[in-house]
Amino acid sequence: MPKFDGPPRVVGVGNPRRVGLADLDYSILQQCMHCGMCLPTCPTYQETKIERNSPRGRIAWMRSIADGDQRVTESFGREMYYCLGCLACVSACPAGVAYAELFEVARADVERERVLENPVRNGVRAFTIRWVFMRPRVLRWLGRSLWLYQVSGLQSAVRRLGLTRLLPGRLAELEPLTPDVHAPFSDDRIRQIERPAGEVRSRVGLLTGCVQDLVYPEVNRDTADVLLANGCEVFTPRAQYCCGSLHGHNGEPELARELARRQIDAFNPENLDAIITNAAGCGSHLKHYDRLLADDPAYATRAIEWSRKVKDIHEWLSAEGFRPPRSEPQPQEVTYHEACHLCHGQGITRPPREVLQSIPGLKLTELTESTWCCGSAGVYNITQPETSGRLLNRKLGHIARTGCGTVATSNPGCMVQLESGLRGEAGKEGRTRVRHTISLLAEAYRRESGRVPAGAKV
Amino acid sequence: MNPSTSALVALLGEGKVLYQREDLVPYSFDGTAALKALPGCVVMAEGTDDVGAVLKIAREHRTPVVTRGSGTGLSGGSLPVPGCIVLCLVRMDRILEVDSENLTLLAEAGAITQRVAEEAEAVGLFYPPDPGSMKISTIGGNVAENSGGLRGLKYGVTRDYVMGMEVVLPDGEIVWLGNKCVKDVAGYSMRDLFIGSEGTLGILTKVLLKLIPKPRARKTLLATYDRMEDAAATVSAIIAGRIIPCTLEFLDRTTIRCVEDYAKIGLPLDAEAILLMETDGHPVVVEEEAEAMAAIARAHGARAVQVAADAAESARLAAARRTAFSALARVAPTTILEDATVPRSRLVEMVRFIEQTARKHALRVGTFGHMGDGNLHPTFLTDERNHAEMARVERAMKEIFDYTVELGGTITGEHGVGLAKKAFLPAAIGEGSLELMRKVKRALDPDGLLNPGKIFDLQ
């Protein structure tokens, strides 16, 4: 087994690929035929109706930088971070522009040119992106501390006493967004190797994620249970690293590459039939390790194998033909919010609905604008609270109009965002619950044997 | 900041005027391939008053004005004139009234076409024109370009649904043209002058549209042919059989292959043509017509005819046509979508000529389009950085348009002339028509402020 912790090492980097817009294969930029079909799907364009806030406008700006007509400026940096990265434009694009790649390269350019630098931002990025999220043990130690703070009653005491007002401005605004941490984490809930009761049909690896592991570890347990119920032997490497999507989407491609290599080492994709993720944001990034490591001679081939085998849990269940639960029907009304990086990033829209509709007694009501971003968008709710808040309210309005007691989704970022919005309704009887699609399926399987749903977080 | 921009900022405020280079670059093109020009500023108008203010300053500073909606045009109609004021109307997007008694809808010019259609549908009515960009195109832009769509044969084009409009003239005068009356012969039909005028005569700020009852049923068929001639014969026979389908769309061999490559929907790669047919109306009539069309297709050599049993199957059959443009656009970095149009009876000759011309110039061209109304979309798949190939594209296009005119057709069925077709216009319409257009332009816009150099030159 590979070693898991310790300071990040740099391996396999001979001549790291430059990542600027100017070095990019020009045909990627040129592929945009400026038809405008992305505009109606872009949440930021719909806010302002100004072209620079649209995919088409951003690509034109990127292209003029690649052409040497314009420079990477602070204003360009702000625009690239105003973009949600929701990839709704990718679903809408008739010409198949690789916007995800353009967006990552543009943000990397912004970081390399240091146009947005200031001491606070640098400090936050150094602490989070470069330190905590590169070290799984530190991340989990921090998670455990936060958990203690929350379960000891200290958090509610601090909130009750109004001590959060002592925090510096932005932190005080962000404090209510702090999600509830749920120890024990995945490693204490899932054994490294678990085998199904009957015949082993396939052998899969399970990615436990960062936010998923700290805030929704029970979703990981549920995912393992669902896989076991469908004849999968589940391999869950210990103390997993961050998948690097945070780094890739925030202008740190080198760190993203480093994390990709560690992930591949931890799982050894050659020995597995599939690598399963239940977090849409991670999955959308994990599937691109092949592109990320294309120039790394030691890892390029393994990365292709990896990308071929990474499957979102819904995608895997649907493709393998999962077993519908045989439990007694339990009436529940559910609506489904599509995580951007599942529907747009990975093009997966049908399988989650198949999962929901297989659950006895579950009535699925379609959500208006189900593919419209909820405003979570990675760390967007922290970096752009105003726009994020408007998107959240738009989403909550649609959810309320369904009248459903539960909103299902498939990404921890969306779950945190929706829960923080629905917390505003706290105290109201029967407020809408947010559940991962797979948790609903796992519960239905558990009801077959009359077991009380163990992982349910209410 | 140039003087006209400063004056606009002073009059309208910073919030409505964009003038930084980074803000202007995204407005330096529309949906047309390979055309670019940087405006001097962009005004985001929020009402007719703002439009009037822009024209006042344009007159004072002799600065040209190019009006723009969502910038989806395919002939360069809303391409900026260098240094001009781009007058963008997308913030004027309200639907002002849906009148179910008179079957009309009143919208601001920047309202999105899709929303117009949805608002009509919400009260059981129907706005038929459905240009390919309707999800984002503006209704004002549709009227200014007289846009078409897939339903031309049965339902006509945008012009057939415009009952009235509010126009701001170059001298700042605001006029109302038309009304809610089906019959109206009071004077010249001035509104018709502005439909398809491409922003050269006045600025449309409100549009009054005609709606019709929504057809109650619809049926979709898909026929596959070994020979293009058989597909064309089917179309002729359907129309000779007194059936006017709402859709008669075809794909040629190149397009079929690209679609199959992209969407994997099981199209036969050796087929030479696919025909998508739809009939709509009263359920009984629709059933009868669908059966008759299937029989006609079989009698005219269709290798296979599929008739959709329900809406889901209709969507599946329509997928080939729906994805045609996407499938072609992915093949090459630059996609040039043309709209040569010929009388229906000359369609096969035209398609064959396009194939030959593509071969002769070593170009990749996929053709699809509206077989019912003779409107073809030869789509050039190229790379604007390849100058030699672009020169061959130019030559091929000239030959194609010359032949179109020879067959009694037109150089543009629904995209407009703009800049892209300007060179072909004199041969297509003749000097007499052109001079009449110039007279009208001079009368309404003597200073040549509105979208100068589009459609034709004043000389």
CATH names the topology of the largest domain in chain A as Glutathione S-transferase Yfyf (Class Pi), Chain A, domain 2
Average pLDDT of chain B, rounded to a whole number, is 95
**Highest CATH level, the class of the largest domain in chain B:** Alpha Beta
The overall number of domains of chain A is: 3
Assess the beta-strand content of chain A as a share of residues.
5-15%
**What is the residue-averaged pLDDT of chain A?**
89
**Quaternary state, please?**
heterodimer
Overall form of chain B: globular
Strand content of chain B: 15-25%
- Largest sheet features of chain B: 7 strands, antiparallel
Highest CATH level, the class of the largest domain in chain A: Mainly Alpha
Helical segment count of chain A:
25
Biggest sheet strand line-up of chain A? 1-3-2-4-5
- Give me the count of strands of chain A: 9
Structural class of chain B: alpha+beta
Q: Care to describe what's here?
A:
Chain A is an alpha/beta fold. Chain A has three domains: 21-112, Orthogonal Bundle (Fumarate Reductase Iron-sulfur Protein, Chain B, domain 2); 186-319, Up-down Bundle (Glutathione S-transferase Yfyf (Class Pi), Chain A, domain 2); 324-448, Rossmann fold (3-Layer(aba) Sandwich). Chain A has 25 helices and nine strands. In chain A, the strands form two sheets. Chain A has a five-stranded mixed beta sheet. Chain A has a four-stranded parallel beta sheet with strand order 7-6-8-9, with helices on both faces. In chain A, strand 8, helix 24 (412-422) and strand 9 (433-436) form a beta-alpha-beta unit. In chain A, helix 23 packs across helix 24. The longest helix of chain A is centred in the C-terminal third of the chain and has 18 residues, at 385-402. By secondary structure, chain B is of the alpha+beta class. Chain B folds into four domains: 3-88, 2-Layer Sandwich (Uridine Diphospho-n-acetylenolpyruvylglucosamine Reductase, domain 2), CATH 3.30.43.10; 95-213, Uridine Diphospho-n-acetylenolpyruvylglucosamine Reductase, domain 3; 217-322, Alpha-Beta Plaits (2-Layer Sandwich); 332-406, Alpha-Beta Plaits (2-Layer Sandwich). Chain B contains 15 helices and 18 strands. In chain B, the strands form four sheets. A seven-stranded antiparallel beta sheet of chain B has the order 15-12-14-13-17-18-16, with helices on both faces. Chain B has a five-stranded antiparallel beta sheet with strand order 5-6-10-8-9. Chain B has a four-stranded mixed beta sheet with strand order 1-2-4-3, with helices on one face. In chain B, helix 8 (228-240) packs across helix 10. The longest helix of chain B is centred in the last third of the chain and has 20 residues, at 387-406. Chain B is globular. The chains are: A alpha/beta (458), B alpha+beta (459). The A-B interface holds A 26-27, 30-31, 33-37, 39-40, 49-52, 54, 56-58, 60-61, 64, 69-70, 73, 75-76, 79, 94-96 and B 18, 20-23, 25-31, 33, 44, 70-72, 90-91, 112, 114, 133, 135-137, 325-326, 329-330, 333-335, 383-385.
